[in-house]
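Table S2 (text version). Query chain:
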Amino acid sequence: MSTGAVARRLGVSPTTLRSWERRYAIGPARREPGRHRRWTPGDIARLELMCRLTADGVPPAEAARAALGGAPGARRAEAAPSPAPGGPDALPLGAVRPECRGLSRAAVRLDAPTVAELLEVALAEDGLVTAWEEVIAPTLHAVGRKWATAGERYVEVEHLLSWQISAALHRIRPLPEPPRSPPVLLACVPGEQHSLPIEALTAALGQRGVPARMFGAALPAEALRDAVRRTGPRTVVLWAQSRTTADPALARSVAGIEWGLRGARARPALLLAGPGWGADVPAPRTERLYGLRSGLAVIESLAPPRAATGAAGAGPFAYGS
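Corresponding structure-token output:
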């Protein structure tokens, strides 16, 4: 495996691997022409042992000696199987991509720089939608399951991981908006603090040049209605993580808001996102969203054709592909 692939698998940065090789001689067994490092299964097993030891507080130099077999009991430690991949604090990931395991290991260690680097690599190499569906979301779900079964432990892991994901999403620069285009308005219902999924949706819309207005967590009901009246959005996306925060009455109220001249009044299409909403939609012109990729397709299908023209406020859209 390449150094980058090993780093993603272990949840450390490539710089850290190179530093360990330089300082402690814990490097790959061979190189390919051009000095490209290639790590064998034996090399990776030693690195995994070093990661476990350093996560337990063992100084790196001592951990490296143990991983290389130079400390008493090192071979027994290397051969002893862990109760779970990554040790007892590993997150319950199941069958996932190696990048998920690397990201989870870094999060459990509270290694914020490595979490940030792994997120940047996943977003750059896979694109936002694939990175969210195959790397970020599975790791978030594993943190939630670990927290649910461990009392108050691992709350700090969830907070650190969520903050780093949010920061990575906010670093994605949107394309310029088409002029005079009705935006997509995205908000969490009142009382809902979980906003990461619609942050991801907002970033993905921005990459496609779709005008979007994101209002984040727990937007008060009257503020939401005011925002709809002021922006005249083509679409409103409401996120509810749980049944306790989902508010069908609010959904009906938002779906009924009108604007524009008499005789040419307009209403938004309302999209309900998140597991808090039931299967039944509470109002006309309302639809459920079931994922980032399919949600993007639904929103883009509500856009007018690129060549559409007309009065101010009904100009051409350029949402991209």
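Notes on Table S2: The radius of gyration is 24 Å. The chain is about 50% helix and 10% strand.
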